[in-house]
Each structure stands twice: as C-alpha cells, then as structure tokens.
UniProtKB/TrEMBL annotation, chain A:
Membrane-spanning parts: 118-137, 143-165, 172-190, 196-216, 223-241, 273-292, 324-342, 398-419
Swiss-Prot/TrEMBL keywords: Cell membrane, Membrane, Transmembrane, Transmembrane helix
Bilayer topology term: Multi-pass membrane protein
Protein name as catalogued: N,N-dimethylformamidase alpha subunit domain-containing protein
Organism: Chelatococcus reniformis
Lineage: Bacteria, Pseudomonadati, Pseudomonadota, Alphaproteobacteria, Hyphomicrobiales
Residue ranges of domain N,N-dimethylformamidase alpha subunit in the record: 460-563
Highest taxon of the lineage: Bacteria
Region (Disordered): 1-49
From TrEMBL, chain B:
GO biological process: amino acid transport
Molecular functions per Gene Ontology: transmembrane transporter activity
Keywords assigned: Amino-acid transport, Cell membrane, Membrane, Transmembrane, Transmembrane helix, Transport
Regions that span the bilayer: 6-26, 33-50, 62-84, 96-116, 143-160, 192-214, 226-248, 260-278
Pfam families per the UniProt record, alphabetical: BPD_transp_2
Gene Ontology cellular component annotations, sorted alphabetically: plasma membrane
Membrane-topology annotation of the record: Multi-pass membrane protein
Organism from which the protein derives: Chelatococcus reniformis
Keyword Membrane belongs to the record: yes
Family: Belongs to the binding-protein-dependent transport system permease family. LivHM subfamily.
Protein name, entry field: Branched-chain amino acid ABC transporter permease
Automatic annotation (TrEMBL), chain C:
SUPFAM superfamilies from the UniProt entry: P-loop containing nucleoside triphosphate hydrolases
Protein name, per record: ABC transporter ATP-binding protein
Domain of life: Bacteria
Organism per entry: Chelatococcus reniformis
Lineage, top ranks: Bacteria, Pseudomonadati, Pseudomonadota, Alphaproteobacteria, Hyphomicrobiales
GO MF: ATP binding; ATP hydrolysis activity; branched-chain amino acid transmembrane transporter activity
Any GO BP annotation: L-amino acid transport
TM stretches of this protein: none
All copies of domain ABC transporter, residue ranges: 19-252
Sorted UniProt keywords: Amino-acid transport, ATP-binding, Nucleotide-binding, Transport
SMART domains: AAA
Length: 565, 293, 252
C-alpha cells in the first residue's frame, strides 16, 4: 500500500495506478485449512478508489503567476502602549493611516501602514529639495531652468487637476486663465510700475474675474460641449493678444515686468533662488489641492461622480455649487500662478495661449492619471523632462510625448498611477471568468442551484456520489460482467463487489426488483415505486427462465443506468 | 471694402467651415468620437493635394481628388488608432478625445519634420476668371468654392439619406446596440464614417488653400472654427450645423464691417456662448438622446 | 430526439439542423448564466422556450448572437461555427453571426428612435439579397402587421408600445434569416395586444427556417408551437411536444 500512497500524491500523476494489489484474490479461509482452498487465485483487475478522490480534489485552475494579494509589511507593536498619533495642524488627520491589530497566530500586537503615499510624497519632495546639490555641473543650467519650469507647470497642473479631476469640468482654458493673469500683471507692472510682490495678488484678482466669466457657461453646458467651448476661448485669447498692440504683438510677448530675482546676484544664486521659489509655489499648490480635494468640497463632489449626479442631487447633495466653488478657487490659484509667472520670467509670451501648450499640459495630466495629485506632478515631471532637457532632439521629442500620451490613453484607464488598480481589476476579472467557466457536468450542483437548496448536505452528497459513480464506471469491464453472469451470488472479485455494494445501496424509488411469475420457471424485472401501497411497475416484457438469469438481467440494467448518468 | 465683398467672403468661408463642421458632427454622432485630429487631417490632405499637384498634374480635378483621398486616408488612420482599440472600453469619449489630440500632436510634428515650416500653396484649380453680379465681383475661386462645397455636402447628405450605408450610419447614431443586433458592424461602419468625414476635411483643405496657404499647423484655426460651428449647431445635427454656419458667417461679415477685424472672434464666441446658454445642446438641441439613452 | 419527429407537419421537405448548440456556457464577468447547454433546432420548427425571469432565456439568445460578456462552447448555425470561445467585447462579431442567417428580435424596445417605420423595416434587411428584395419583404411584413401601413412615414419614437413591438418584430422578419429568435414578444404589452402579436408570429410562414420564442407565459404558447422546452437556472429541462405539454409535469 505504501507505494500506492506515493503514486497517488498529487502531481505524480494518477492515471496508471497499478492494478496489482487487488488483481489477485486472497482466500481468507486458507489459513484455517479449509478443504480444497487455495491461498490466492487470479482475479479481475481492480483500481484504487483514491485515484478519483485525488483527481476530484485537485485544483484544475492553472496557477498563473499574475500578481498576488496586497502585501503589507507588519511592524511590531508597542506592547500595551497606544501608538503615538500625530495630527497635522488645521485638520484632525493623522500623518499616516496606521491600523493596529492583534495577531492571533503570533499572539502579538502589530501595526500596518495602510496608506504609504505620504511617505513617498515626503521622500520625493525631499529629493527635489536636495536636487540642486547633486546636479552634474555640466547640466546645472539646463536642469535648474527645467526644475523651475517644472515647479510652475506642476502648480498649474495641480489647479487644473482640481477642475478636471475633482470638479469634473472638462475645461481646457486653464492656460488661458494663467496667460490672462500673466498678461494683465505684466501690463500693469510695465505701465503702472507695480512691484513684484503685488503681481501674484493682482493676478489672483484677474483670475477670479476670468474664472467667474468662464464659469457661467459651465452652469449649463456639460462635458464635451464645455471642453470644445474652452478650446475656442483659448484660441480667442491667443488671437486677441496677438492682434492688439498693447500686448506687444510686435515683440512676440510682453516683457520688462518687475521680478523677484535680484539682478545684482550671481548667475548661480539667481537660478537657485528661482528654483526654490518655484518649488515653494508647487508645494503651495499641493496644499491647495489637499485642502480642496480632501475636505468638504472634494467630499461633496466625490458623492456625485459622473453618471450618478442625478442620484446625488436627489439625495440633497448640491454638487453644482461645489463644482463652481472649486472652479473659482482654482481660477484664483491659476491667477496667482499667472502673476508669479510674470514675476519669474519678467514677462510672458503668446505661446502660453497656443494649442500646443494646452496639448502638452493635457499630456501631463493624462500620462500621470486624471484625478490624483501625484499624477499631475509626475506627469509634469516626465513631460518637462522630455520637453526641456531633451530640447536638442528637436521635433522628435514632441512626437515622443505624443506617442507616450497615445499609448497611455489606449492601454491605461487611469494613467500611470492607475496601472495598479487596472491590473488588479483585470486579474480579478480573469480569475472570476475562469472560475465561473469551470464546472463539471453531472452530479455536482451548479452554483445557482446550490444557493436555492435548503439541505446543504445534499450538495456534498451529490459531489461525493458523482465521484463514486465516476470511479465505479471505470471498473466496469466485460470480464466483470462475465464474472457476474457465471455467479450472481457468492464470492466476487473486488471491483464487482464494490459495484454490487453501490447498487444495493440505491434508494428504493425506482429500484429494480424481481417478481416471480411462476416459481422456478418465470421471473420478471420490475421497478419499485418507493411509495407504500403503490405497486411496482413492470420494466420490460422479457421473462427470465431462472433466478440467476434474472439477477444478471437486473445487474445489466443497473450497469446500463450507471453508464448513462 | 464694400458690403458685397464682405458678404461673399463670409459666404465662402461659411461654406468651407460648414463642410468641416458637418464632418465633425457626423463623426461625433455616429461613432461617438470627438475628432480633434481633424486639424491634422486637414493639413495632411492639404499636403496630399500639394504633392499631387507637384508630381501628377495641376489639373483641378486631380488636385481635389488627391486632397480628398489623402483626407480619407487620414480619417482611416485616426479611426484605426483612436476608435478601433478603445471603442468598447470604459470612458471611451474622454479617452477618444485625448487620443485624437495626441494624434494631432504627433501628426503636426511629423508634417513639420517632413515638409519643413515653409508654407506651400496650391495651383488655382478653378481657373482665374471672374464675373460681376449686381455690382459684386465674384472671382472664380469663390464661385468654385461655394458650388463645390455645397454640391459635395449635399451629395453626402443625400447619400446618407437614401443608401444602405447611410442607413447603417444613421442607425448607429441612434442606437449602437440595436445596430449590432440588426447586423451592422460597428467597426466597419466606423471606418466608413471616418473615411467620409476625412474626405470632407480634405475637400475643405483644398478649397481653403485657394485663399490661404498650407502649413503643418494650418489646420488648427479651421478646426476650431469648425468645432465652434458644430457646437453652436448642436453636435450631431447636420441641419443645425448648416444654420450655425450661416449665422456665424453673417456675424463675421457684420462684425468685420461694423467693428473691425480683431473683434470677430470675440463677437463670435459671445454669440456662441449666448446660444449655448439658451439651448445647451446647440441650435438643434434635441439630438443627444439616442447616444446617452 | 423523438420531438423532432413530431415536429414535421405534413411531411415537410427533409429537415436539417438549423441551430446546433453544444456545451454552451455563457455569462457576464464573474456571473455564469448558462451552463453547458445542448440545444438543437430543426428547420421548419417553432420552438417555445419557457422559464422564469433570470433563468437565462435572453442570455441564451444573446450568446447565440455573440452579445454576452464571455462564452464558450460550440454554436453551429446552418452548419457554420459561430461560437467563439474567448471572452470578447460584446457585439464585436454579432454582425457576422447575423450575416449567417440569424434574426434576433430582442426584448424591450431596441429601436432607432429617429428612423421612420419604413426605414426601420429597411434596416432589418441588411444581407444583400434581402436588400434587393426589400419591397416584397416589406409587403409581406405589412400583410402580417396591417396597422403599420398607415404609420410608414412616422418616426418610431412616436409610436405606442404595441406598435413599437410590431416594428421591432417586423424588422426581424425582414431579414433573410434561417433562424428567428424572438425574446418575450408579449412583455410589457396589454394581454390583448400581446395575444395579437403572438398570433402574428404564429402566422409567419417559416418554410425552411425556424423560430424560437422565449416566453414566461406558457398559456400563450401551448398548442401553438411544435415543442416547448423549459429553462431552469441556465439549463434546459423537460422537453415535450406541445400536444403533450398539458399532460406532462412541468419542471418550472
């Protein structure tokens, strides 16, 4: 038996279990020296019943190496003490979302950091802060300029992300607001001599006015109508500034505004100051994003996602007002950035209104993933890197950006930062499809039937019964039938004995039986009704001359029935 | 600068922009894609016509045919890239919009890299005669533009109204699911639609290049005009687009006459915003039920 | 398959298999609606498919048309394999199946709101031959549904529910199909209208094609179709010729 055990291990195949163990019949009476008893005689081949058992229990789903369940590192707890909960000031939030649990296996407390994003944020921001110290000297200039541009564009994109992602307004006029504020402040600074520190504030005012004007159509229009309209508005701004003499149609922009960078400083200090100022601007935009998206307005808008606005409205969520509020707040932010833009570059050019700027900005949002702050920042970093650092490659870099954008849109649902969720969803879909496809025909209950059945034992009984029938079917062979024909009663080989045991155990309803038509001369096969008082029904007309032949007839019918299930 | 001149100009421009707007409208309503790569198709077919004029013949018919064919090819390209892979995926409208934008970015840069930044101009395909009608001088290209664009648009509309493919396209506009059940292949119809609308863009490009030059990014301004007309008329409605084209053409003529050229865009957008505030779905206004229902 | 023998009324020409479904499973995402189902329809046959809500009647039809989320198993329509065994975008290959000779008349109002009744009927005839013969076919449909004659130029969006159902069924009948799948023709209609729609379906001359009608209401089908098949949790149960339907125990 030991080697059968080995052979039956899952994996080491089940098809060829040897029929040696039972293909001889050992006479139990032999040791007592019964008369004419032989010790063992050859018998019909037999198969091990555990073969079917193992095969049924084996998982047939191929285990593909497609990801795993979410993994959390478990940190040790602090004994009996509570975890120190730092909260940051204006909110009552903890810095990290930490879940404490008691692990019943190790009998210890442990902690899980559920959301690790704040850690990544801090690491990334610190890296940006320290970046100027480790820049290679050859590229110092390019990289510092690119870094400053990155800060400004990341701030713009964060505000834009508030409009598109949080408020769900497909506005493509964000750069128009920035440009309008920049042109306005530049003009004021040149002609009225405003100092640099007023420019962002004046810009905010211009942004507010612009935001209010642009917000009016957003009340009535939805989705793409608004997107197309704002493309038009952008073009309108471009053409207007391009044609008007006041805004320097001849010089390609408006330059000469006051700047916060002291001209007396050395080149390096100037670029360092610019870098950190833009970095501070980006951090300010992040804080704005956090406060709008993560607090009341953001919550209201999360309750009214796309296609479920009507439901939200019916439950009393005034999402329209929240949308307009978010729009106006972000417009003020964009105006502020516009003023900063002027103070940073000492002016502004028409290219801020051009379609390509909008396109690149949209590429930044889309590559990172719409609706997340990290998407806006990382997308900006990628595009700015391609656009400003690889500037020597010419138009190829724009084609590259376009290709990345196309690839992201065609293959990813939510940008780079949506990959994880998308992959998880895909894996779950595949898994569940495979699971629902997998079902054997026959005795097993289908999932729907199983839920409808009162007696849950029945489910497992059926599964067991099916397994047994599968096994018994594999035992049937002409030799066994021949053996039964020779002696329906008496000692049998193991396979035949197992078959007969199964047949005998069948429930009474529709069980075959034999009636005597004429003693010792005529027998007939009937089927019992299973109900008291109801006569058995006659199954066939054939009359068997002897009892043994009738037994064999019943056996043949039962074998037939077994093979048909 | 007399009134007649301005009005004829406006009518000519309205015809061309109307052609573009109808193309955009049909695309949106039948395959649900906002084709912002239309400007790229426009520029591409301009270059196609130019290549035809350089290498094959300067005959007007050949040039127009080259332009229309290149436009149709461009439409097929956009269809294959931005419609086929994602049309049954979630968020198709947004992703389609962005995909077409990406195509227009790539395409514009590619055209710039291949043909260089210098503008090209096409031969005069309608000859150089002129007639005088009630004191207004009509040059050949104006008459030709108006006649050709109206004829082609009418032909396309008639074809959509009467033929089997047209019926397919209209059926798909109204109920894509039922269209599949009836036996209309969504992808195949997508290719038809995009080829036709691309052809319309090509035609508009050839006609417009009688007045303007062909440049890698020259398609942008016409596309924005076309978009605003389609928007004003109500996306998906051909009749609305025609009315809007006439209306905006008139507005352009009047503003240029009364206030000066630089205010044209401002009045135009004020007009559009006004119309959209009154009827959020444009002039036709009732179209969208079929797609969102 | 003794029911097939009963299904030949008056010695019709040699019957062949129109539809042969073998081991079909189908569903949407993680949900499995149809379970390893076998189903054969012969030419000239009218089959009733009876089952409760949510037991997979519509899904069976959709699976035949390739409109489910995923499916596997063999579906042979006129001897051509149309079943696909991978999960595909629903409806991606439906038009090819329709071209093989399938007319699906779906549940509810799957109509084109803006088209007129006439255009609607035209839209049903998308195979080239049917398109050429659409005049005659339209007349035939109008003979079955006389109320539509007056409405030929009205947009379908303005019709009443019963008229819409007529248009929808008429659109299906316009096709040069060898298999008509009619999904719940009486759903949402007044009993009288439902009966008249059913009578119209019964009056369609099938010739060598076949028709499968899914219904919840057995009474509407009894005695009118050649055989009735019950459907229970995604499997076919108890098949009987319609004449026997009164006597046999229904497993519904």
């Amino acid at each position: 038996m030991v080697d059968v055990e080995q052979r039956l291990r899952p994996g080491t195949a089940t098809a060829d279990v040897p029929d040696t163990p039972a293909s001889t019949w050992r006479n139990p009476l032999h040791p007592w020296g019964a008369e004419g008893a032989e010790e063992e005689i050859p018998s019909n081949p037999h198969r091990d019943p555990r073969e079917v058992w193992v095969r049924t229990r084996e998982s047939k789903a191929p285990l593909l190496p497609v990801g795993r369940l979410r993994y959390y590192h478990k940190w040790p707890g602090h004994g009996g003490r509570l975890w120190q909960r730092m909260r940051y000031w204006p909110t009552r939030r903890r810095v990290l979302h930490i879940r404490g649990e008691y692990n019943p296996k190790t009998l210890r407390r442990e902690k899980t950091i559920v959301d690790k994003r704040p850690i990544w944020w801090v690491l990334g921001l610190v890296a940006l802060l320290l970046a100027p110290a480790v820049m290679p000297a050859d590229f110092q200039n390019t990289l510092m300029t690119a870094g400053a541009t990155f800060g400004i564009y990341a701030a713009i994109n964060l505000c834009w992300m508030l409009i598109i992602g949080t408020a769900g307004i497909y506005s493509l006029a964000s750069y128009a607001v920035v440009g309008a504020a920049a042109f306005g402040t530049a003009w004021l600074s040149i002609h009225m001599g405003l100092p640099w520190w007023t420019l962002p504030l004046v810009g905010s005012a211009i942004g507010l006015v612009f935001g209010l004007i642009i917000a009016i159509p957003a009340i009535r229009l939805d989705g793409f109508y608004y997107a197309l309209l704002t493309i038009g508005l952008n073009e309108l701004c471009r053409v207007y500034t391009l044609q008007s003499k006041q805004f320097g149609s001849s010089t390609g922009g408006l330059y000469g505004a006051d700047t916060y960078i002291p001209q007396s400083w050395s080149q390096e200090s100037q670029s360092l100051l610019a870098y950190y100022a833009c970095f501070a601007l980006m951090v300010a935009a992040l804080i704005l994003y956090r406060f709008v998206d993560g607090r009341r307005l953001g919550r209201i808008l999360k309750m009214a996602p796309e296609k479920r606005e009507a439901f939200a409205e019916a439950t009393g969520v005034n999402f329209r007002r929240a949308r307009i509020w978010v729009f106006i707040i972000s417009s003020i932010g964009l105006g502020f950035i516009g003023g900063f833009y002027t103070a940073h570059y000492r002016g502004v050019s028409f290219s801020i209104f051009s379609f390509d700027t909008v396109l690149l900005g949209l590429a930044m949002l889309v590559i990172g993933g719409i609706g997340r702050a990290e998407g806006a920042v990382v997308g900006t970093a990628i595009v700015i890197f391609l656009d400003k650092v690889l500037i020597a490659t010419g138009p190829i870099r724009l084609i590259l950006i376009g290709l990345i954008m196309l690839g992201v849109v065609l293959f990813l649902k939510g940008g780079l930062f949506g990959i994880k969720a998308q992959f998880g969803a895909w894996r779950d879909k595949k898994k569940s499809e495979r699971r629902s496809r997998r079902a054997e025909k026959g005795g097993e209950m289908l999932p729907e039937e199983a839920t409808e059945t009162k007696d849950k034992d029945l489910i497992y009984w059926r599964r067991y019964d099916k397994m047994q029938r599968d096994y018994l079917k594999s035992l049937i062979s002409p030799e066994i039938i021949e053996e039964h024909r020779k002696s329906p009663l008496g000692q049998h080989s193991e396979p035949l004995e197992r078959l007969l045991l199964y047949f005998r155990r069948a429930p009474l309803a529709d069980k075959y039986a034999i009636t005597v038509v004429k003693p010792f001369q005529a027998y007939r096969i009937v089927a019992l009704s299973g109900q008291r008082g109801v006569a058995p029904r006659i199954v066939e007309d054939k009359v068997y001359p002897t009892q043994d032949e009738a037994y064999h007839g019943v056996f043949l019918r039962r074998v037939q029935d077994l093979l048909e299930t | 600068m007399d009134l007649g001149f301005i009005i004829t100009n406006a009518v000519v421009l309205a015809c061309i922009y109307g052609t573009l707007a109808i193309g955009l409208s049909i695309t949106w309503s039948s395959v649900g894609l906002i084709n912002l790569a239309y400007g790229f198709i426009f520029a591409l077919s301009g270059y196609g016509a130019w290549l035809g004029a350089q290498h094959i013949s300067t005959n007007g018919v050949v040039v127009v045919a080259c332009g229309v064919l290149t436009g149709a090819l461009g439409g097929l390209l956009v269809c294959a890239l931005a419609f086929i892979p994602i049309h049954d995926k979630p968020n198709f409208t947004v992703r389609g919009l962005i995909a077409t934008l990406a195509i227009s970015l790539i395409g514009g840069q590619a055209l710039l890299a291949i043909f260089g930044p210098r503008a090209k101009n096409l031969p005069e395909i309608f000859g150089s005669w002129k007639i005088s009608l009630a004191g207004v001088v009509l040059t050949a290209d104006k008459v030709g533009n108006v006649v050709v664009s109206i004829a082609v648009v009418t032909a396309v509309l008639m074809w959509m109204r009467s033929s089997r493919r047209g019926l397919e396209i209209r059926a798909m506009m109204m109920n894509p699911h039922a269209a599949a059940i009836v036996g209309i292949g969504v992808r195949r119809t997508g290719f038809y639609v995009m080829a036709i609308t691309g052809g319309l863009a090509g035609l508009a490009a050839v006609l417009l290049s009688q007045t303007y030059y062909i440049s890698p990014f020259g398609g942008l301004a016409p596309m924005i005009k076309g978009v605003s007309i389609a928007l004003c008329g109500g996306l998906g409605s051909v009749r609305g687009a025609v009315i809007a084209a006439v209306l905006l053409g008139l507005n352009e003529a009047l503003t240029a006459r009364l206030m000066g050229g630089q205010y044209v865009l401002i009045t135009q957008f004020l007009l559009i915003i006004l119309i959209l505030l009154m009827r959020p779905r444009g002039i036709a206004g009732i179209l969208d039920r079929a797609r969102e229902a | 398959m003794d029911a097939a023998a009963i299904a030949a009324p008056g010695g019709a020409p040699a019957k062949h298999e129109i539809l042969n479904v073998k081991g079909l499973s189908a569903g949407y995402g993680p949900m499995r609606v149809i379970h390893a189902l076998d189903f054969i329809v012969y030419s000239g046959e009218r089959v009733g498919l009876v089952g409760l809500n949510g037991h997979g009647k519509s899904t069976l039809f959709y699976a035949i048309a390739g409109l489910t989320g995923w499916q596997r198993g063999s579906i042979r329509l006129n001897g051509v394999e149309v079943g696909r065994t991978r999960s595909q975008g629903p409806g991606r290959f439906t038009h090819l199946v329709v071209r093989q000779g399938l007319a699906l008349i779906p549940q509810g109002d799957e109509i084109f709101h803006g088209l007129t009744v006439g255009e609607h009927l035209d839209s049903g005839a998308f195979t080239p031959r049917a398109w050429r013969e659409r005049k005659q076919r339209k007349e035939r449909v109008l003979a079955i549904f006389p109320p539509l004659v007056k409405l030929m130029d009205t947009p379908v969006g303005r019709l009443s529910g019963g008229e819409r159902r007529m248009v929808s069924i008429g659109r299906g009948l316009m096709a040069e199909a060898s298999l008509f799948l009619v999904d719940e023709p009486s759903l949402g209609l007044a009993p009288k209208a439902g009966k008249s729609v059913m009578a119209a379906l019964m009056s369609v001359e099938l010739g060598s094609s076949a028709m499968v009608i899914a219904e919840q209401n057995v009474a509407l089908l009894e005695g009118k179709v050649d055989r009735i098949i019950g459907m229970h949790v995604g499997k076919l149960k108890g098949e009987a010729s319609a004449a026997l339907a009164f006597q046999t125990r229904r497993e519904l």
